[in-house]
Specification:
CATH superfamily of the largest domain: DD-peptidase/beta-lactamase superfamily
Distance between the termini: 21 Å
Shape: globular
Strand order of the largest sheet: 2-1-7-6-5
Bound molecules: glutamine
CATH class of the largest domain: Alpha Beta
Length: 330
C-alpha cells in the first residue's frame, strides 16, 4: 500500500488527477522497455499489429480524463466486448433468463476452453468464449443485419460515435475461428443457444473487431463503475443492478485462469482482450485502461498487467483495501 503522494480524500481532486498523470507517465517510460510476450497470432491478422504500441488512460465518474502514450491508436476490443454484451443481455432479458443459459462460476480454464457447466446445463460464465457466444445468441433481431445494428448501437452509446469495425480482423477470425465454431455447435447441440449458429458467430466475431482507443476503454470502464451512467453524456446505459452483476463477473471471471491472482494482487474488476487492451472498473470512482499488444500465456497484455498492479498499489485501488484514504467517510 502506498505511503507517498497526495493524501486528500477527494479522489477527483486536482492534486490527485495531476499525481495520476505523473505516475502514468513514469510508468509508461519505465515499462516501454519491457518486451516480454507476443501479440496474438491465432487470429492471423492480429499478428500484424505494431507490438511496441503502449498507452494508459483513466476516466473519472465526472468525465475528467488522463492519458499517456498512444492514446489515439485504434485496436480491436476483442473480449472486452463481453462486458457490454453481458450488460445488454441482462437489460434485455433479465437475470433469470440469462442465468438459465450462462452461469457465474469461474472456470480456472483458458478463455477458449470447449466446455459447458454440465451440472446446470449452461455455459459457465459470460467472460469466457462459451458463455460469451451464448450471450451473443441472445442479441435480438430477425437477421444478421438487425442484430449487428443492435450491437453497434450499444457501442455507440458508450463511445459517443458510430463505431468502426476492423473488417480484416473480423474476416481473419471468421476464417480461422473453428474453435469458437466448435464451442457454438456444442452449445447448440445442448439446446443452450438457438440453431442460428453461424449468424451468431458472425455477430460475435464482429463485436470482437470493434475498434477502440485506450481512452474509449477507460470511458467504458468509468460508465460501468458509475452505476451505468455515462460520465459525459449523462445517459443511464445500464441499471445499477446490471453494472453490479457485470463488475462481479469481471472480478471473478474477467481474467480467466488468472482471475484469482488478479483479484489477490490488483483487486479491481477487469476484463482483457487479445487485442492488447485491459479495462478496469473502480466502483463509484472511474475506469482505468491500458493497451499494449504483447500478451502473456493467459492472453493478457504483459505491460497492461504491470500497469494495473502498479496503479492499484500506488493509489490504493484494491477493492478490499479498507483503509484506503479516499474511501474514508468524510
Ligand atoms: N475474438 C477472440 C476469440 O474469440 C477474443 C478472445 C479474447 O480477447 N480473449 O478468440
Amino acid at each position: 500500500m502506498s505511503s507517498v503522494g497526495p493524501t486528500d480524500t477527494d479522489v477527483h481532486g486536482e492534486r490527485r488527477i495531476e499525481w495520476l498523470h505523473e505516475v502514468c507517465s513514469a510508468l509508461h517510460d519505465e515499462l516501454s522497455d519491457l518486451d516480454d510476450g507476443l501479440p496474438a497470432s491465432y487470429i492471423p491478422e492480429l499478428s500484424r499489429v505494431d507490438p511496441d504500441r503502449f498507452a494508459i488512460a483513466a476516466v473519472g465518474r465526472d468525465g475528467r480524463s488522463q492519458s499517456v502514450g498512444d492514446r489515439s491508436h485504434h485496436f480491436t476490443i476483442q473480449s472486452i466486448s463481453k462486458l457490454l454484451l453481458y450488460g445488454l443481455a441482462l437489460e434485455t432479458h433479465g437475470r433469470d433468463a440469462v442465468l438459465q443459459r450462462v452461469g457465474v462460476a469461474p472456470t480456472g480454464d483458458p478463455f477458449n476452453a470447449i466446455e459447458l457447466d454440465e451440472e446446470h446445463h449452461r455455459a459457465p460464465n459470460p467472460m469466457v468464449n462459451s458463455g460469451a457466444i451464448a450471450i451473443t445468441d441472445l442479441v435480438s433481431g430477425g437477421n444478421l443485419d438487425e442484430r449487428t445494428a443492435v450491437v453497434l448501437r450499444l457501442f455507440e452509446r458508450f463511445l459517443g460515435r458510430r463505431p468502426d469495425v476492423d473488417r480484416a480482423v473480423c474476416a481473419s477470425e471468421r476464417v480461422t475461428g473453428n474453435r469458437n465454431r466448435a464451442i457454438a455447435y456444442l452449445l447448440a447441440n445442448g439446446g443452450i443457444i438457438t440453431d442460428r449458429v453461424e449468424e451468431t458467430l458472425d455477430v460475435y466475431f464482429m463485436q470482437c473487431s470493434v475498434l477502440v482507443t485506450v481512452e474509449d476503454l477507460a470511458l467504458i470502464g468509468a460508465t460501468i463503475a458509475n452505476a451505468g451512467v455515462h460520465p459525459t453524456t449523462g445517459e443511464q446505459i445500464f441499471s445499477p443492478q446490471v453494472t453490479r452483476d457485470v463488475m462481479t463477473v469481471a472480478l471473478t471471471c474477467g481474467m480467466y485462469d488468472y482471475a484469482g491472482e488478479w483479484a489477490y494482487t490488483v483487486g479491481i474488476p477487469a476484463k482483457s482482450g487479445v487485442g492488447g487492451g485491459i479495462v478496469g472498473m473502480i466502483p463509484g470512482v472511474g475506469g482505468l485502461a491500458a493497451f499494449s499488444p504483447r500478451l502473456d500465456e493467459h492472453g493478457h497484455s504483459v505491460r497492461g498487467v504491470k500497469v494495473f498492479e502498479a496503479l492499484s498499489d500506488r493509489f490504493d485501488l484494491h477493492l478490499f483495501d479498507s483503509d484506503r484514504p479516499w474511501a474514508a467517510p468524510t
